[in-house]
Fold each of these.
Amino acid sequence: MQYWAVLFADLLLLLLLVLSLLFAGRSRGGQTRKEQLGTEGYQEMGRKGGLSTTDESGGERAEREGIPIDESKFKTKS
């Protein structure tokens, strides 16, 4: 009986470790992308993404509505 309790506790700890690594990597990925593009590029990408709908992409909608999107800011800074 005690064996199953220890096994369950170990599995639970392993699950928590995996989840914490997944969530830590996810938030870090966005931060890394922001560092690569710079603040202006990251904001431009957000503006374009915010315009997207299920029917059309953000770029298509921006073009249709005459909203300027400066894609040169998307370039990764080396």
Amino acid sequence: MKSTYLIRPHHGSHKTLWFGLLGTIIVIVGSILLAYAQTQKKEAEKMNPTKPVPSNTDLQRQLSKDQYHVTRECGTETPFHNAYWDNHKAGIYVDIITGEPLFGSLDKFDSGTGWPSFTKPISPGNVVEKRDSTHGMERTEVRGKMSDSHLGHVFDDGPAPTGERFCVNSAALRFIPVDKLKEEGYGQYLSLFQPPQGQPQQAQRD
């Protein structure tokens, strides 16, 4: 007489399978969250208001000769032969040293001077005005608040609505186009370029 054996399922193997699947899910979710956190950290580091300003020795290594001369020695670059005097793209201009937002393309105009000119800063608190009596002239110097870098000068012969002309050296600035704002950590400024339809506003030629 043949004996019949019943094969019972091994509950332990099922538990092992479920624990394995759960562990895999946890690893995948953890990897996604870690990658997101690292991306956010990199974006925050690109524009960090608490980041200390490098020493002049470090800046001499990091900046070009013209950038250092303008920002740290109050120099003036050659008109009509600089990066942004004729730039008509939409975006913002930030401090070359700290990344602090300084001016926006919507406030840029053609002053005919050969230097980037703006009717106002992107935020009044980001620039500092100081009396400048050098070269036998009385002028108002404009400096970056965080970096204390020389940017240029402000004059009262600008167009409406402010009547001011912020004449700035390209060497003190870095331009970030609209499509790079979020990537560079300046996503909060995208709203400046959004018309009612929600489409990015096209740059107007000066």
Amino acid sequence: MDSFELNKILGAVLGTCLFLLALNIGAGAVFAPKKMEKPGYDVVVQEKGKPGETPAATPDEPIEKLLASATIDRGANAAKKCAACHTFGKGEPNRIGPNLYGVVGRPKGTEGGFDYSAGMKSKGGNWTVEDLNAFLANPKGFVPGTKMTFAGVSRGSERADVIVFLNSKSDSPQPLPKAAEAAPAGEKKQ
């Protein structure tokens, strides 16, 4: 290879680099971003109370009062999110979670053919309306170590609807507590 051919190759590489540099400068002029008045971004932060102070959570109404206005239809609609893991019909198979037919009043962790977590097996007792309400609100808080990964139902009225729906899915539905049986706010039941 003689020097003339080498000069042509190096000239082509240098010409390409100069063309790309000119193209970059031209594109920067055409598509230049607007200059900000002040550097940075506005960060919106919620103002918190004093350190160590916990905000007062609004307490739910008693479940008995919520059950008075609960309906099976709204409960069936709300329970659709449960249907991904549970079945509700008599004799239906377990899925990721146990079949919930007849769950109200049934002993905890006893659905046949389902492998419950140790936390659920050791919980003991029957599924009462109050226990279902607490479990639906925060499954991991009610049964530490539960396999249930669902975060919970935050609205009390929706939990009441689901409980009424679950109670209807039984050969012998349990009597639901009435609002008159609930202790007035601030008083404890004996």
